[in-house]
Structures are given as structure tokens and as C-alpha cells.
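re: that chain from earlier
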Amino acid sequence: MGLLDFLLGNKSNKIEDFKDRGAIIIDVRSKGEYDSGAIPGSKNIPLQNISSKINEIKKWDKPVITCCASGMRSGSAATILKSNGVEAMNGGGWFSLSNKL
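^ sequence. v structure.
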């Protein structure tokens, strides 16, 4: 385990753990971005709509992996979800995340 893994946690291991527990992938890009390419089976909830969908997301009773184009918006979405009691992590950019799944 490297120093960064120790300090930041190993993202690949966390993704694997979330995936093993039936995680839902939420892509927080705009509909247009999502329609141009996305992870199969992911749900498109643009970042500006995340707060209004909290109760729906909680009903899924699953961990959530957020993704976007680069990891910035998905980081914000994961923070919003976690602050509302949803087990969530930032998966980063959707293309990079798709390679880890």
C-alpha cells in the first residue's frame, strides 16, 4: 500500500466494494453529455437536480457511485449525497470509471 493509498484510500478497492454491494451509478452530466456516451445501466441525474432527487435515491437503499466528465461535478454530487445520509463516493470521470468496472 502506497502513501497515497493510505492517505486517500484505494479508489479501485472502494469501487469494487460498492459494486459488490449493488451500487447504483449516477452520471451527473447534462442530458446532452450523457446521451453522447455513458456507462451502460447508469442513471442520468444532472448535478443541479441531485438535491431534489435525494428522497428517491434514498429509496434505492444502495450505495451510489457518482461520475461526470472529469470528476469535479461528481465530487460535488457525492458530497451532497453523503451530507444527506446516502452512502456515496466520487467515481470521477465516466470514461475512466467505466474502465474500472
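Residues 22 and 37 are 22 Å apart (CA to CA).
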